[in-house]
What we know:
Number of domains: 1
Structural class: mainly alpha
Order of helices and strands: HEHHE
Amino acid sequence: MNLILGIAIGLGIAWLIYKTKNGWVINWFGWVLMGVSASSFVFGVDLFFGSIIEHEMRAGWMGFGLFSIVLPVVLGTIVWHYSIVRSA
């Protein structure tokens, strides 16, 4: 599972670097929030599978919902609106 997460995050970072070379300007605050969002997603998925292994379904779904769905969406929205400048 961690291999798949690493590949997905690597592809996401490659896409962001491609976009910054083709017109997007992301300030330092945006990079920090994107890093926190990505690490939150990884933590949520890891928490989910760890809880499933320990037979704690409810804790797994609650952790996955909080760390992998809610927090990255909120941080991604903040980054999208306030720290990405699109040059025409």
